[in-house]
Amino acid sequence: MSERPPVVLIGPMGAGKTRIGKRVARILGTGFVDTDRMIVAEHGPIADIFDTLGEPHFRALERDAVARALRGSDVVALGGGAVLDADTRAALAGERVVLVTVAPEAVAPRLRDGRRPLVRNGLADWERIYAERRPIYEQLARLTVDTSHRPIDAVAQEVAEWSKTAA
């Protein structure tokens, strides 16, 4: 891990946080971690956690994963709902936080894989959840980038360049 605080990507499901995070880390020559992938590796599929243990249990696992990721990584992608936790929001207060946004028409094809338990009913669920979380995302973010109509590599380059000057 570098001496600089991590670059943390937040935003709605399907916005491209993981893809961008991997590219930003590659550009910067640093480490990358996706907190959802940490949870899956340690506890199994997120949909199964939601179905068997419930959302509160998942959020506790997520809070722990975020805390560990912020201590040990240079680029971190958070799950869309991670910012709902007050402790996580407090931990992000001093970080270089990037909000990754996407328009509904651009995210719709990305939601068809059925792996996201909170949007099993499709785009209407996604739009409702994004509207609820958007004020939190915007409050935490120091940079906002949109993935709707831009190449992922261009977005990642923008984030990487910004991170070099952001304290």
TrEMBL record:
Catalyzes the specific phosphorylation of the 3-hydroxyl group of shikimic acid using ATP as a cosubstrate. Its EC number is 2.7.1.71. This is Shikimate kinase. SUPFAM superfamilies: P-loop containing nucleoside triphosphate hydrolases. Belongs to the shikimate kinase family. Its cofactor is Mg(2+). One of its GO terms (molecular function) is kinase activity. The lineage of its organism: Bacteria, Bacillati, Actinomycetota, Actinomycetes, Micrococcales.
